[in-house]
Amino acid sequence: MSDWHDVATLDDLWEGDVAEVAVGPDTILLAHLPGRQVRAYQGICPHSEYSLAGGDLDGDVLTCTGHLWEFDLRTGEGVNPSNCRLYEYPVRLSGEQIAVSVPTDGRPHYNRCRG
Amino acid sequence: MPKLSRSDWYDLARDMNWTFGYVNEADVFPEELSGTGRVPPEAWLAWDEPYKISYREYVHNQVTKDTTTYSLKNAVGRSKLFDQLDPGWKSVVVAHYGAIAMPEYLASFGEARMGRFGRAAAWRNTATFGTLDEVRHGQIQTFFPYGLLGKEPRGDWALKAFHTNNWITLAVRHLFDDMFVANDALSVAIQLTFTLETGFTNLQFLGMAADAIDVGDLEFGSLISSIQTDEARHAQQGEPTIKVLIDNGHKEYGQFLVDHMFWRAWRAFALLTGLSMDYYTPLDSRKMSFKEFIQDWVVKQFADQFRDYGLDFPWYWDEFINELDWYHHAIHTVVWNYRPSVWWNSDAGVSPKERQWLEEKYPGWNRAFGKHWDVLTENVRTGNLAETFPETLPVACNLCQLPIVRAAGVLAGAHTDPAPLRHVHNGRVYQFCSEPCRWIFTRRPERFAGHKSITDRLWTGDINPPNIGGVLAYMGLSEAEHGVDADNYAWANGKH
Ligand code: FES
Ligand SMILES: [Fe+2]
């Protein structure tokens, strides 16, 4: 099971922007990629728990400020290191409204990678 | 020219490997230096570091970090920020520099050894960056405290400590000689990068940077985060190394190296981080107790690692968990009692409010340790300061080199017998604080037998005269450098 939550509007999140929102215990990274594509991932870096919203977005690639790990925000895959992917939440756009689906399984929605 | 993506050229640029025609494998990778001989050379080709970096990117990143950190230092240096810091926090910083700056520089030896004798080109490449990292950490952590000299005359212990026979130095030097100065490449990867850095220091540096910002020490905070970002990268040498070792059927040896160094790392942490977190850091800035930090971060991290690699918890795990409740409290008492013998001002950290916090975080603290502090408090209040200095010296463990505090373990209900553990090797008696310390020694006695603890030096006449004055002089402390109570005893009068 999961619930949809309105978390932001496209007015809050321009193309090329990332933002952090919270839904219950989940910290979520929102990203507005070129071409009206919005994605939602775990908001905390899988490496050492820095906030990903503080990172630099260049095209589709986000670089975490912690230790410069890179993630492709179109897919959630790690670019460097490549063996580490972000947990992804489904996103729905209706008009300007961004909604994110968060599972109600009581589990953490969060990948962790050491390095 | 089209820009190739990193994955198109990285392996080719990194993997400088060839088949030896004129020399033997053993001449190029002598086992004493490499330690990789259990696994056949071809199998090491599977070694791969997860986070990739080119030399060009490395230099670019490092220059950016240095520029930021040094300019912050210059700005802060012109302000009164350091003078306004809590005295206990200053002790954290001064203790840190003396105990850590030179070891970071020495760690570059271990990294360089992996850079030459690591059995995979990818490993040598990563270690080369690691060598540069550690040279940088040694330099920056010597330079910064020298900038404090006008305000803190013992800032130069960043360089000096390791050139003395101070008892804290003996312990830290013994540990780091074992871990990386006199260790083969494989063991450095597993013991320094996997066990110490991934297991302990990466997490601790994150916490310490946050605490520094919280108490208002921007300079130290930015220094520590700039170091931590390097540590996180070169620490990744541990995992591929242990993976190759285990995939090739040598789990038992990997486990032995981890068990050996986990205990030693715990001992050093209890001394440096335990005292800092639970006694020196101002109460308002404490986010968690030392015990909570070890449980929530270190234990969790190790549990993950052990599970992922099919390793087991070290055989002494129960003893380790048990020590979280009492060991560093006992060491703190010793360090404070012998405060003139360390290069920082020991912060008793036992004002009424702090004692309440300690009892809350460590139920039973009052029963096991509070009584001792009651006596000290009374002596301070009645002007009997002389009574607060002990007359005899504690016996040091022949492995960890720290005072044997089993008597406190008895008070805390962890031991039944306060007597040191013993072992006889080639006719000489060695004494130990704990079963794991004795176990580490007896597994490879030839590695440790020649070393003299501070107690041995006292008994065999190296220290003259064999009294407190002689000991302090032997330890390299001039009178002006002796540590004093950080708060000038305000805690005893109920103030803080
Ligand atoms: S925390 Fe994000 S790269 Fe380390
Ligand atoms: Fe010991």
From TrEMBL, chain A:
> Sorted alphabetically, which SUPFAM superfamilies does this protein's record hold?
ISP domain (SSF50022)
Cofactor(s) named in the record: [2Fe-2S] cluster
What InterPro entries does its record include? Rieske_2Fe-2S (IPR017941), Rieske_2Fe-2S_sf (IPR036922)
Residue ranges of domain Rieske in the record? 5-100
Coiled-coil parts of chain: none
Q: What's the superkingdom here? A: Bacteria
Q: Which UniProt keywords are listed?
A: 2Fe-2S, Iron, Iron-sulfur, Metal-binding
The family assignment reads:
Belongs to the bacterial ring-hydroxylating dioxygenase ferredoxin component family.
Q: What is this protein called?
A: (2Fe-2S)-binding protein
Q: Which organism is it from?
A: Protofrankia coriariae
Source lineage: Bacteria, Bacillati, Actinomycetota, Actinomycetes, Frankiales
Automatic annotation (TrEMBL), chain B:
Highest taxon, organism lineage? Bacteria
Recorded GO MF terms: monooxygenase activity
Q: Which UniProt keywords apply?
A: Monooxygenase, Oxidoreductase
Q: Output the Gene3D superfamilies linked to this UniProt entry.
A: Ribonucleotide Reductase, subunit A
- The enzyme's main class, written as a single word, is oxidoreductase
The reply to whether Oxidoreductase figures as a keyword in the UniProt entry is: yes
Q: What is its EC number?
A: 1.14.13.227
Q: Does the keyword Oxidoreductase apply?
A: yes
Reactions performed catalytically: propane + NADH + O2 + H(+) = propan-2-ol + NAD(+) + H2O
Q: Which SUPFAM superfamilies match?
A: Ferritin-like
**Protein name, per record:** propane 2-monooxygenase
What is the originating organism of this protein? Answer: Protofrankia coriariae
